[in-house]
From TrEMBL:
It is found in: Cell membrane. It is a multi-pass membrane protein. The keyword Ligase does not apply. This is Opsin-5. GO terms for molecular function: 11-cis retinal binding; G protein-coupled receptor activity. SUPFAM superfamilies: Family A G protein-coupled receptor-like (SSF81321). The chain crosses the membrane at residues 27-49, 61-80, 100-121, 141-163, 189-216, 241-268, 280-301. It comes from Oryzias javanicus (Javanese ricefish). GO terms for biological process: phototransduction, UV; visual perception. Keywords: Cell membrane, Disulfide bond, G-protein coupled receptor, Glycoprotein, Lipoprotein, Membrane, Palmitate, Receptor, Sensory transduction, Transducer, Transmembrane, Transmembrane helix, Vision. Residues 41-298 form the G-protein coupled receptors family 1 profile domain. GO terms for cellular component: plasma membrane.
């Protein structure tokens, strides 16, 4: 079924860039940078998660889902926008526009729902540990990920059947939901309002409230321990993990907030002249940056990721150079064995016959000379 009766009458001007050639070049380079950084960063995250797949926790499974979203979105869809920017128009017409709009909306909702799930589960763990123990089971997390993808795909597919529409954005180099459908018909208005309220505003509020509650709870508990002079290494590690997910969640909200605000304003402006193309392109580029920084947050806060990254880079280096494998590094990283050992008595020295007979122990009058070969 066609998206809208206006599809057949849509002219090429809708797919032409409304920016200058220089601005198009800058937009193309910016999106290309996002694609490259996201593919490298999230690719490393996925490789590391595969290497430690047997030790993955529930929250880390959701991080894998988020990395998959960021990786695939940049590989499957953003190249269309990049190439179109260099050609000063959207390439492929309505077919690629629908493909791009549908795919980006699915992955955008998946990212939003995944971070919402992470925030709620972290909140349950911090404030209600018993409830968290059930939700963090691997089977439940996998089921939750499937539900996230299913809901995102179903809601995003409604414009394919006439409820809503995917159209070029005002600057002409990207496609998204027709936010101006609010003025087209009642059913399109309902879809636009539900999309904004139920799938943008409510998840964002859940993320903010959950993460603020977590941060307050962890900070208060750490303060209570510090006032009593108690140092709890387990709670210190928990605080680092909480800060990691706090940065991921708020980074996502901050990146998408300008685009959500501009889209919301665009809903209620019937005439496009009230919103300039430049007013859309900058928030859109800022929102795309949300695919970049999550890997850096993982590697900064998570020591396990740091160790796995070192091992991965070291193994890759030895493979490329043809040198000995990482065992050389492991041997080199061990502390050197001292040439002599201090023993309090000869009896204690005899507890280590290999050292004693090698003449490497100090006791009484100096190193004991080797007199016999150990059996």
């Amino acid at each position: 079924m066609p998206l809208n009766s206006s599809d057949g009458n849509r002219t090429n001007s809708a797919f032409s860039s409304k920016l200058s050639s220089e601005a198009d070049l800058c937009v193309g380079l910016a999106i290309l940078s996002v694609v490259l950084l996201s593919v490298v960063g999230n690719g490393l995250v996925l490789v590391i998660c595969y290497r430690k797949r047997k030790k993955m926790s529930g929250s880390e499974l959701l991080c894998i889902n988020l990395a998959v979203v960021d990786f695939l979105c940049c590989v499957c869809f953003y190249p269309f926008s990049t190439v179109s920017s260099f050609h000063h128009m959207w390439l492929g017409g309505n077919v690629t526009c629908v493909y791009y709009g549908l795919g980006c909306y699915i992955f955008g909702l998946c990212g939003m729902f995944t971070i919402t799930a992470i925030s709620i589960i972290r909140y349950l763990k911090t404030c209600y540990s018993l409830a968290h123990s059930f939700w963090l089971k691997a089977a439940n997390i996998r089921l939750l990920c499937c539900i996230i993808w299913l809901v995102s795909a179903v809601w995003s597919s409604f414009p394919l059947f006439g409820w809503g529409e995917y159209v070029p954005e005002p600057y002409g180099l990207s496609c998204t939901v027709a936010w101006r459908g609010y003025h087209t018909s009642t059913k399109d208005a309902i879809y636009v309002i539900c999309s904004f309220v139920c799938f943008t505003l409510v998840p964002a509020l859940l993320i903010v409230v959950s993460q603020c509650s977590i941060l307050y709870k962890v900070s208060r508990f750490s303060y209570e321990l510090s006032t009593k002079g108690i140092r709890n290494n387990l709670r210190h590690a928990e605080k680092r993990i909480s800060m990691m997910f706090f940065c991921i969640s708020f980074g996502f909200v901050i990146a998408w907030a300008p685009y959500a605000v501009v889209s919301f304003l665009f809903i209620f402006h019937k005439e496009p002249r009230y919103m300039s193309p430049e007013g859309f392109v900058l928030p859109a580029l800022f929102a795309k940056s949300s695919h970049i920084y999550n890997p850096f947050i993982y590697f900064y806060f998570n020591k396990t990721f740091q160790q796995e990254l070192r091992r991965l880079l070291l193994a890759s280096y030895h493979k490329l150079t043809g040198t000995e494998s990482g065992s050389t590094f492991l041997r080199a990283s061990r502390p050197p064995i001292p040439s002599t050992f201090s023993c309090r008595s000869e009896a204690a020295c005899k507890g280590n016959p290999k050292r004693c007979t090698a003449g490497k122990c100090l006791h009484a009058g100096g190193p004991r000379q080797r007199t016999s070969t150990p059996s």
